[in-house]
Specification:
The chain is mainly α. The chain has a domain of about 55 residues. About 70% of the residues lie in helices and about 0% in strands. The N and C termini lie far apart (about 40 Å).
């Protein structure tokens, strides 16, 4: 539990620091309010049965979901890099998003991302 809290705290502080950099300054109240909202969102994402408690099993499941999503994003980036220069251009990103948006609703769901990757992961 201490490990996940530390990860959550570091990610919240880092995101608030970037907010402060954009605004040039941030008040104590803005800092606290922003972090409380983010911590509540993260807690709610972990508390899968919505009982107001975070169990070790929920924590492990959350970490696995996050790791799976990061791996998928990394692998999709590899597929998106058509010219293999190690960078994703705006054109490459647009092409990938268009290909993944199967129902053409202008939004790519996690399921569409996963389906696209599973269909294309062995293609070179």
């Amino acid at each position: 539990m201490k490990k996940i809290f530390l990860i959550l705290f570091v990610s919240v502080v880092a995101s608030t620091a970037s907010l402060a950099a954009e605004k040039k300054s941030i008040t104590k109240k803005e800092f606290i309010d922003s972090n409380i909202k983010k911590l509540e969102q993260q807690f709610n994402a972990i508390d899968s049965n919505k009982d107001g408690k975070m169990t070790p099993a929920e924590e492990r499941a959350y970490v696995q979901r996050v790791q799976k999503a990061r791996l998928l994003r990394r692998n999709l980036a590899i597929l998106a890099d058509i010219n293999k220069d190690g960078k994703i251009s705006k054109d490459e990103e647009k092409k990938l998003l268009t290909k993944m948006d199967v129902n053409k609703d202008g939004s790519v769901t996690p399921k569409e991302q996963e389906n696209y990757y599973n269909k294309n992961k062995t293609k070179k």
